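pasting for ref
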Amino acid sequence: MTGHPSKNRPRNAGRPREFDVDTALDRAVRVFRQRGYHATSISDLGAAMQLTPGSIYKAFADKRAVFVATLDRYTTQRRQIMAPLLAAAPNGREKVRAMLQFYAQAAHGEEGRDGCLVVGSVVEISTFDADLAAHVVSTLQGSEALLRGLIEEGMADGSIAADADAHTLTLALLSVLEGLRVLGKCGRNQAEMLAAADAAAAILP
């Protein structure tokens, strides 16, 4: 965790609340994805989370804290959804392909147009809040570490060439993963996104 953890946690973590925090954060995800951090107001969050501003401030220090909690919730849920898809793949190469396809599936239709909270936030926040930007970047680094681990698994099990440059392949495929989410904002269709994911997987030696 980067920045000031005490500011990023919901207030009074052990105190009973009149609402479920996870449900409220799930509702906040979409407004942050659609509007971005800057353009989202407490009023916007209240409408999305179905809470009064007072209720939000009782649970969180400020909008920044709501955003951090929402980002953490968003990334945790995505990892949980993706985990069984990776586990079902027979080797490292197919796990990488499954990860690419997972991102491709999120990059079309309404989901695609909403955009990726991580990608959008990296671009928007990096210039004005170093601590918050570092937290967002650490989330992106988590995806990079996961991808590299899958590539190295493939190198170890023989499904990817043992002499492959894991670092360079990771950066290339991470660029594709995040780029898919950017293209999704432009209304690309499912077939295009899946085809792009398969083309990216083909670079694995």
